[in-house]
Amino acid sequence: VQLQASGGGLVQAGGSLRLSCAQSTRRFPNYVMGWFRQAPGKEREFVAAIRWSDDNTYYADSVKGRFTISRDNTKNTAFLQMNSLNHEDTAVYYCAAGHVRNAAVKTQYDYWGQGTQVTVSS
Protein backbone atom coordinates (compact mmCIF):
# COMPACT_ATOMS: atom_id res chain seq x y z
CA VAL A 1 0.00 0.00 0.00
CA GLN A 2 1.32 3.38 -0.94
CA LEU A 3 -0.05 6.64 0.36
CA GLN A 4 0.46 9.96 -1.36
CA ALA A 5 -0.26 13.08 0.66
CA SER A 6 -0.64 16.50 -0.89
CA GLY A 7 -2.19 19.90 -0.33
CA GLY A 8 0.05 21.51 2.24
CA GLY A 9 1.29 25.05 1.98
CA LEU A 10 1.53 28.46 3.56
CA VAL A 11 -1.66 30.10 4.76
CA GLN A 12 -2.53 33.06 6.94
CA ALA A 13 -4.14 32.57 10.31
CA GLY A 14 -7.86 32.11 9.90
CA GLY A 15 -7.44 30.60 6.47
CA SER A 16 -8.14 27.13 5.11
CA LEU A 17 -6.34 24.28 3.43
CA ARG A 18 -7.43 20.92 2.11
CA LEU A 19 -5.12 17.95 2.35
CA SER A 20 -5.50 14.83 0.25
CA CYS A 21 -4.22 11.31 0.77
CA ALA A 22 -4.47 8.92 -2.15
CA GLN A 23 -3.95 5.23 -1.50
CA SER A 24 -2.81 2.73 -4.09
CA THR A 25 -4.97 -0.20 -3.12
CA ARG A 26 -8.48 -1.11 -2.11
CA ARG A 27 -9.71 -0.61 1.39
CA PHE A 28 -10.85 -3.57 3.49
CA PRO A 29 -13.28 -3.99 6.37
CA ASN A 30 -12.21 -2.12 9.46
CA TYR A 31 -9.77 -0.13 7.39
CA VAL A 32 -8.97 3.29 8.79
CA MET A 33 -7.26 6.25 7.22
CA GLY A 34 -5.92 8.88 9.53
CA TRP A 35 -4.00 12.12 9.70
CA PHE A 36 -1.26 12.86 12.16
CA ARG A 37 0.95 15.88 12.51
CA GLN A 38 4.35 16.65 13.93
CA ALA A 39 5.60 20.08 14.86
CA PRO A 40 9.32 20.75 15.38
CA GLY A 41 10.51 19.29 18.66
CA LYS A 42 7.19 17.59 19.38
CA GLU A 43 5.80 14.11 19.19
CA ARG A 44 3.70 13.06 16.24
CA GLU A 45 0.10 13.52 17.30
CA PHE A 46 -3.27 12.32 16.12
CA VAL A 47 -5.44 14.75 14.17
CA ALA A 48 -8.35 12.89 12.58
CA ALA A 49 -9.36 9.54 11.13
CA ILE A 50 -12.13 7.90 9.17
CA ARG A 51 -13.22 4.28 9.13
CA TRP A 52 -13.85 3.17 5.60
CA SER A 53 -16.59 0.63 6.38
CA ASP A 54 -19.05 2.91 8.16
CA ASP A 55 -17.75 6.46 7.73
CA ASN A 56 -17.20 6.86 11.46
CA THR A 57 -14.92 9.80 12.06
CA TYR A 58 -12.60 10.64 14.94
CA TYR A 59 -10.99 13.93 15.86
CA ALA A 60 -8.47 15.28 18.29
CA ASP A 61 -10.02 17.80 20.66
CA SER A 62 -7.74 20.51 19.34
CA VAL A 63 -9.27 20.34 15.85
CA LYS A 64 -12.90 19.49 16.53
CA GLY A 65 -15.20 21.94 14.83
CA ARG A 66 -12.44 23.23 12.57
CA PHE A 67 -11.22 20.17 10.65
CA THR A 68 -13.31 17.69 8.69
CA ILE A 69 -12.14 14.35 7.38
CA SER A 70 -13.92 12.73 4.46
CA ARG A 71 -13.33 10.16 1.74
CA ASP A 72 -13.97 9.48 -1.91
CA ASN A 73 -14.53 5.80 -2.57
CA THR A 74 -14.09 6.09 -6.30
CA LYS A 75 -10.64 7.61 -5.92
CA ASN A 76 -9.49 5.72 -2.82
CA THR A 77 -8.70 9.10 -1.36
CA ALA A 78 -9.21 10.71 2.01
CA PHE A 79 -9.37 14.44 2.55
CA LEU A 80 -8.74 16.72 5.49
CA GLN A 81 -10.47 20.06 5.24
CA MET A 82 -8.82 22.47 7.65
CA ASN A 83 -10.57 25.72 8.50
CA SER A 84 -9.84 28.51 10.94
CA LEU A 85 -6.18 27.60 10.97
CA ASN A 86 -3.94 29.06 13.64
CA HIS A 87 -0.24 29.08 14.36
CA GLU A 88 -0.51 25.97 16.54
CA ASP A 89 -1.60 23.99 13.47
CA THR A 90 1.79 24.50 11.85
CA ALA A 91 3.36 21.07 11.38
CA VAL A 92 4.19 18.35 8.93
CA TYR A 93 1.01 16.40 8.30
CA TYR A 94 1.16 12.68 7.62
CA CYS A 95 -1.54 10.36 6.39
CA ALA A 96 -1.63 6.79 7.58
CA ALA A 97 -3.72 3.70 6.97
CA GLY A 98 -4.31 0.26 8.37
CA HIS A 99 -6.59 -2.06 10.23
CA VAL A 100 -6.71 -0.31 13.58
CA ARG A 101 -8.85 -0.56 16.66
CA ASN A 102 -7.97 2.77 18.17
CA ALA A 103 -7.74 5.39 15.47
CA ALA A 104 -5.77 7.77 17.65
CA VAL A 105 -2.88 5.40 18.28
CA LYS A 106 -0.18 5.88 15.69
CA THR A 107 1.55 2.57 16.37
CA GLN A 108 -1.50 0.73 15.15
CA TYR A 109 -1.18 2.05 11.61
CA ASP A 110 0.58 -0.10 9.05
CA TYR A 111 1.24 2.35 6.27
CA TRP A 112 2.42 5.95 6.19
CA GLY A 113 2.67 8.51 3.48
CA GLN A 114 5.30 11.17 3.16
CA GLY A 115 4.55 14.33 5.06
CA THR A 116 3.18 17.55 3.70
CA GLN A 117 4.12 20.82 5.35
CA VAL A 118 1.43 23.14 6.65
CA THR A 119 2.60 26.55 7.78
CA VAL A 120 0.22 29.07 9.30
CA SER A 121 1.49 32.62 9.48
CA SER A 122 0.20 34.90 12.18
Question: Which terms would index this structure?
Answer:
122 residues, mainly beta, seven-stranded mixed sheet, four-stranded antiparallel sheet, 11 strands, 51% strand, globular
The level of helicity is: under 10%
Report strand %. over 45%
Q: How many E-type strands?
A: 11
Instruction: Please give the alpha-carbon distance between the first and last residues.
Output: 37 Å
What structural class should be given to the helix and strand makeup? mainly beta
| SSE pattern, N- to C-terminal | EEEEEEEEEEE
Give a short account of the largest sheet: 7 strands, mixed
Rg calc: 13 Å
Task: Describe, in plain words, how this protein is organized in 3D.
The protein has strands at residues 3-6, 9-12, 17-23, 31-38, 45-51, 57-59, 67-72, 77-82, 91-99, 111-112, 116-121. The protein is mainly beta and 122 residues long. Strands 2, 4, 5, 6, 9, 10 and 11 form a seven-stranded mixed sheet that branches. A four-stranded antiparallel sheet has the order 1-3-8-7, with no helix packed on it. It is globular. It starts with a strand and ends with a strand.
